[in-house]
């Protein structure tokens, strides 16, 4: 590479999370790094953006100033928007998000702040990757992840990504990973179990808990890859149109129907 | 219909918004209505869920008790989860969300709390529709919308929806709507312009503002339909896999590459 690529790094666990610190280390081997990340954890934020309140972004000094870093009061998607429009002088060559503490495989992509940052960058036409390790603990060991993060990132920089596509990369939490598989998103969901309690004033409240259920036993899915010791790479798009349904919906003749209600 | 369908109604503008009150009126003509909606506006929440704090849901009496209503401290996706698991005795036959005050066409689907509720219901295997009117004002006139909301809802109850698909319905804010079009999501985005200000303590802060840019002039898109006076109906899926890219990504041979960094 002639010139070093400019890499915007963000996450949803907050700027001090070990996962993003690992990601920054790897990106420093590849390009010029600027960090714009939430000042506090934002997990489960989906693709939230801040439209009804104010946003703060400020320079912070971490890590002996090896890279420029900014902490932001907003969501991961806000960080990307602010990073591109207010912090960086030019459009970055790449945006990476993570490494998330915990899985964003299969349906979790929908709830993921990590992936919302990557998708936001993708909407802006920037190649983008979200990385997640299958260990939600703060003390998770990211060492085995590093070479896979590097290989995938270098390939994205070399090959580019198609318009409208970003990568969702999940990494199994095992010391000896078998390799990388390109996958589709498994059909899975969460079966919620709300934990109902009473507050000191006697008012009921709930904690959201749940059990993950994989309904999809295809061997081409991200869940299969992860269960079998592989890093999963799912190309993710933000054109949500179910194109295969359009013809069927047209047979409903919505402009002709007169339906009598019960 | 032999038995009246059970309909879960929610939104992201809050339980008192005129849009949801209109939606409840229309649904009362079709089935048995239960409302579980946010206690305050949640616009721009994307598919956020509440995992790090507590959730309150409580019965509220509105509208002369024409239907059961619950207000919830969480996001639209939380409302659907709580509605299904804690409020309703049986799985609803339909979930409708809206009518949103403001557009959720094209890329807005990604940021939309209204659509996140419909998608959450879809993940649970419940037919679901998000409705939005192209007028963000509280005083918007929902009258012209009503017959279209009713026709589309009745057709969904009659025909069902394919697994993994929900509908994103946007309604132009004009008195004489031309009809309904099945569409694909237009390729469009927001060009952000952050409004930078100083707070009374002299610290910089930002307001997110922006300009919507439609990059897609296809006549089969939701933006085209809306501009030309039609209600747009986009089938939306939550399998985000860009299936068309998998073959291409496999040519990268990620397990063989050894790349020398710069």
TrEMBL record, chains A, B:
Keywords: Cytoplasm, Hydrolase, Metal-binding, Nucleotide-binding. It holds the Pfam family SurE. The keyword Lipoprotein does not apply. This is 5'-nucleotidase SurE. Its cofactor is Mg(2+); a divalent metal cation. GO terms for molecular function: 3'-nucleotidase activity; 5'-nucleotidase activity; exopolyphosphatase activity; metal ion binding; nucleotide binding. The lineage of its organism: Bacteria, Pseudomonadati, Bacteroidota, Flavobacteriia, Flavobacteriales. Coiled coil: none annotated. Belongs to the SurE nucleotidase family. It comes from the Bacteria. Its EC number is 3.1.3.5. Its main location: cytoplasm. One of its GO terms (cellular component) is cytoplasm. It catalyses: a ribonucleoside 5'-phosphate + H2O = a ribonucleoside + phosphate. A divalent metal cation binds at residues 12-13, 43, 100. Gene3D superfamilies: Survival protein SurE-like phosphatase/nucleotidase. Nucleotidase that shows phosphatase activity on nucleoside 5'-monophosphates. Residues 7-191 form the Survival protein SurE-like phosphatase/nucleotidase domain. NCBIfam families: PRK00346.1-4 (NF001490), PRK00346.2-2 (NF001492), surE (TIGR00087). It is found in: Cytoplasm. Binds 1 divalent metal cation per subunit. HAMAP family: SurE (MF_00060). It comes from Yeosuana aromativorans.
